[in-house]
Amino acid sequence: MAKPMREISGALPSALTDAILTATEPLVLRGLVASWPLVKASLRSQREGIAYLRRFYRGEVVRALIGPPEIAGRYFYNDDISGFNFDAVNARLDAILDQVLEHLDDPCAPTFYVGSTTVDTCLPGFRDENDLDLGDRDPLVSVWTGNRSRIPAHQDLPDNLACVAAGRRRFTLFPPEQLSNLYIGPLDFAPANQPISLVDFHRPDLVKFPRFAEAMAHAQVAELLPGDAIFMPSMWWHHIEGLDSFNVLINYWWRQSPGYMDAPVNTLMHAILTLRELPPPQRLAWQEVFRHYIFEADGSEAAHIPEPARGVLGPLDLDKARSMRAAIMQKLKR
């Protein structure tokens, strides 16, 4: 039921305008990084792609996820959600690539996955040959590599430009408002510290998860080839599959907000602590407070207060954020 994602064919890096990089809908950019040497090497052969990646490795230890063949690349919980179905280990990247190489032709291979690893730390010099210019943005650039994988649907706060450099990847995206239809697991215990959908996208159980059918009616899907890229807006749910026995994704992510702002998930956890168990009338009263001061704030909520007296209702800056953070931390110690 998912619909195809909007695409631009033959995209050049010059196509990365602010209109694209601040969009609120996902977009596939076909061929955006087709000129990258890693893309060309991986298209010649998987072994050449692995050899090219090794050129830049200098011994940095990475965090790797290793799972048995029976999980079929789906990094998930164990049966009772008391643990996970994989092992997380610290390892050398070249050792993980050795394992991927050993199992290239194995249809029932163990699964190996290295995710969210900073490129400049792990592969110094890689971006001298394989990079994008995002203007005045200062993105975090990460590498994700391994063999076949299925990463459950989750959200990220930053905007994300993900570039497929080796292997094929399938992306299934959902707008943020599909939260209740995706059956999200524990908020404080998740495979990569990001809450995930409990639905197996390959075998969705619509008896256990009936609203997932509605989520799929709003889904957008795209299969990307080496050289393609996808822009994923902040907070869109995304399920990602690495479809080949060697895959590399390079992603750029950045926030459209000042660095002094805290992660909103901290507010969610504090709200669970302070608001969720209130009597319903009190919760409704606080809902109105948040609507007024946060979700529909436009400046008018403090217009009747002299500017020097507006305190936290005035514009935020680094110093005020530090002061507020210190005050909140002091209150949390009670």
UniProtKB/TrEMBL annotation:
<dbReference type="InterPro" id="IPR041667">
    <property type="entry name" value="Cupin_8"/>
</dbReference>
<protein>
    <submittedName>
        <fullName>Cupin-like domain-containing protein</fullName>
    </submittedName>
</protein>
<dbReference type="Pfam" id="PF13621">
    <property type="entry name" value="Cupin_8"/>
</dbReference>
<dbReference type="InterPro" id="IPR003347">
    <property type="entry name" value="JmjC_dom"/>
</dbReference>
<feature type="domain" description="JmjC">
    <location>
        <begin position="112"/>
        <end position="269"/>
    </location>
</feature>
